[in-house]
Amino acid sequence: MEKVTRSEAEWREALTPEEYRVLRQAGTEAPFTGEYTDTKTTGVYRCRACGAELFRSDAKFESHCGWPSFYQPAAGDAVTLIEDTSLGMIRTEARCAACDSHLGHVFTGEGYDTPTDERWCINSISLTLEPAE
Q1: CA triplet 30, 36, 55: central angle to 5 degrees?
Q2: What is the mean pLDDT of residues 114-126?
Q3: Fewest C-beta in 10 Å: which of 34, 86, 127, 130?
Q4: What's the CATH number for 8-131?
């Protein structure tokens, strides 16, 4: 995978202030406000910052958590996982492997009926949806 490298000034120019806050500063959009939370459109979800393919709609499921949920990324090397100890807990942060932008978090063992028993809880603002034709 080709790495995307930009200065912080270039990221600020390329992204809206809210996109920058979430993607580059590991922020979170408010639950139930993102454009893809309830989307059922068939297609590919890409990183809003760099366009890398991250998830496919066939791995998206209803978790009712307030953010789009997937049970796996499109490819094993599409997303980088990092231990996140912010907020006084240990979580697994998901970042775009191509540009290192924050996507959301991964949770396991919650009992969802998915092939992986994982919930990739992803901010809508971190994604763009490319509908299938």
Answers
A1: 115
A2: 96
A3: 86
A4: 2.170.150.20
Q: Which two tokens stand for residue 68?
A: 């789009």
Closest residue by Cα to residue 126 from 99, 104, 93:
104
120 neighbors 70 (Cβ within 8 angstroms): yes
Q: Report the percentage of the chain scoring pLDDT > 70.
A: 99
Residues with active-site annotation: 121
SS3 content of the chain, % helix, strand, coil (to 5): 15, 30, 50
For 34, the token pair is 């993102």
pLDDT at 1 over 80: no
What is the C-alpha end-to-end distance of the chain, expressed in Å?
Answer: 25
**Sheet with strand 127-131: strands edge to edge:** 53-56, 43-47, 127-131
Kindly report, residue by residue over 30-77, the tens digit of the pLDDT.
999 999 999 999 999 999 999 999 999 999 999 999 999 999 999 989
Do 49 and 99 meet the contact criterion of CB atoms below 8 Å apart?
yes
